[in-house]
Amino acid sequence: MAIERTLSIIKPDATRRNLTGKINAKFEAAGLRIVAQKRIHLTIAQAEAFYGVHKARPFFAGLVAFMTSGPVVAQVLEGEAAVTKNRDIMGATDPKKAAPGTIRAEFAEDIEANSVHGSDATDTAAQEISFFFSGIEIVG
Ligand code: ATP
Ligand code: MG
């Protein structure tokens, strides 16, 4: 397996409930290293651009409103097979379907306010990392 990097976002429902540390502890316990991290409040234009792939979906407007409703913590996670490992730690999009012990099973409020984002492939990970971070901000 290869060492990969993936883009993670701790979403506004989780920052509001002060869950950043608990979520980061799960990444670190699973062997992922947080090699970049910043807390930001996305603008509507930034959230629309980041989730542009979902523009035609009925939940798009709600998703953008939610993602701009409070601060998020954007981060780069690094480790063996980091993209799929992070998706496993996150659990299914709908917390009702997420496996026990996953972040979404433990912390998500519902299918929209589901506490974390994680890139879904290595190519989208590279695009999403460069959306938030410059090379100098990532320290492995
Ligand atoms: P993410 O991209 O945030 O890591 P994901 O890959 O599990 O999540 P996607 O299908 O990419 O899920 O959806 C992006 C986000 O849009 C979800 O995480 C969730 O916040 C929201 N979302 C997805 N489906 C719905 C839905 N049916 N109703 C409301 N919000 C939804
Ligand atoms: Mg997705």
Would you write up a description of this structure?
The protein has 140 residues and is of the alpha+beta class. It is built from 7 helices and 4 strands, in the order βααβααβααβα. A 4-stranded antiparallel sheet has the order 2-3-1-4. It starts with a strand and ends in an 8-residue tail after the last helix. The mean pLDDT is 98. It binds adenosine-5'-triphosphate (ATP) and magnesium ion (MG). The site of adenosine-5'-triphosphate has 11 residues, from helix 4 and strand 4.
List keywords for this structure.
binds magnesium ion, binds adenosine-5'-triphosphate, 20% strand, 140 residues, 4-stranded antiparallel beta sheet, 4 strands, alpha+beta, 7 helices
Summarize it:
It is built from seven helices and four strands, in the order βααβααβααβα. It has helices at 12-16, 20-29, 44-50, 60-67, 82-90, 103-107, 122-132, and strands at residues 3-10, 33-40, 72-80, 116-118. It is globular and about 35 Å long.
Q: How does the overall form come out from the CA principal axes?
A: globular
**Largest sheet properties:** 4 strands, antiparallel
Q: What is the helical fraction, as a range of percent?
A: 25-40%
Supply Rg.
Answer: 14 Å
Secondary structural class: alpha+beta
Give the amount of beta strand, in percent: 15-25%
> Overall mean pLDDT score?
98
Lateral strand order in the biggest sheet: 2-3-1-4
Put simply, the count of helices is 7
What is the number of strand segments? 4
Q: H/E order of the elements?
A: EHHEHHEHHEH
Low-confidence stretches: none
In angstroms, what separates the terminal alpha carbons?
18 Å
Unique bound compounds = adenosine-5'-triphosphate, magnesium ion
